[in-house]
Amino acid sequence: MFNYQNISVDNEKWELDTTSTAEKSLQLFVTNRCNLACNNCFSQDLTAEQKKGMSVDDAIALAEMNPDYSRVNLMGGEPLLHEGINEIVSGIKELGDRRLAIFTNAMALKRLKRESEPVRLSVSFHDLESKERNRKPIVPILDELKDFHDRENDVKPIFLIDQSNYNNVKNIITFFDQSVPWVNTLRIGLMRNEAQYFSDSGVVSFEDYAKVVQDIVNTYNGRLNFEFLTKGVLRFNDREYDDCSVDRLRNVFPDMTYSDCVLGSQSRKPVDSNLILPPTHDTCIHTKKNHCLIYKARLNQRER
Question: Looking at domain 5-301, which of 3.90.226.10, 3.90.1150.10, 3.40.1280.10, 3.20.20.70 is its CATH number?
Fold first, then answer.
């Protein structure tokens, strides 16, 4: 199933860090509704019933009843479209011991009230500009994101590579390097069909993704640092990442079912009435190894 791709890193140029992948995260898919229709997204084919959101009380209680997960990610669909997004954010923050992030296209950022700040946004995009509903542009919302960032909120752009932008990667990196000075780290990932994660049909192959990443690591000479989502197939300097525990992610969906993994067609189980999630597998269901496929590698530039 796996053909691991090794990325060679010059340790004199880059400091390689993978420690953040050990953090356990509770991923709450609070709604399946979205304001876009991106290719390969699961939310396109949902019925109206399936697009109902998780209740505010359930979202907060899930975070409270599962304290082993030190980080809570609000996912979608588009989580900012949830009618109770501000109540969910405030309620989880009141727990006091959780790191909270919203994974969003940020096009509905005005729905997030000032009293919900500070909060961390992970903002995914495909293109700099686009008027198509199946593309996520970043330029139209950059000013709003900068204002949000300037109010001491953490904003992390995530550039998702797919077949349409594969040949434009360097231009997008150059744009951020030269025109977005408030962004110091650019996260880069690969757009896949999560239900058919291990099929290359209609998406950029893992091998081609590795070529893009290796080219960036070898040739980039600007000011940015990078976080690469390894997609389960990239290794950096042949490192195995055994510290990335197999139980570090737990996914709960709007219909109050959960899964141990978002990759492939995994069966979902109903959340128990006490909202406590049971222990997960001892090994990855895909590789039978003791670490999670979903990890990232951070490359920080060393001082020159």
Answer: 3.20.20.70
